[in-house]
Amino acid sequence: MISFFVNLFVASEGDYRRTGKGVKVVQDNDYPWNGNLKFTLTPKEPLEIFIPGKNTRMGPREVALPSDLYSFETTTSKTVSIKINGVAAEYNMDKGYAVLDRTWKAGDVVEVNLPMDVRRVIATGKL
Q1: In terms of pLDDT, which residue wins out, 100 or 57?
Q2: CA–CA distance, 105 with 52 (Å, rounded to integer)
């Protein structure tokens, strides 16, 4: 298994190859103006998509950053949603990445919706 990481959300196209296997990814989005991300794949590998810290839940609590130094002033029930070919996808979070491990087919479309609400981050005073 080879992982392909998406860290930068910008409309683009790219090929990744390693040990004879690879994936072509076409990214179509208007981030950061909205959180709707679309990836069209021609792959043979798993896909891991970075989920920005403000959209992740680490354990049972929301975190602004993966530390105790900052927190959100208010809570939200909105979560990241991921669909593959229009169907809600199951994924696991690993070190800030949503891991989508499946057998991919050429033309698979991954849609990620990141809640883009403006939220105030405050210092907790813990060092």
Answers
A1: 100
A2: 27
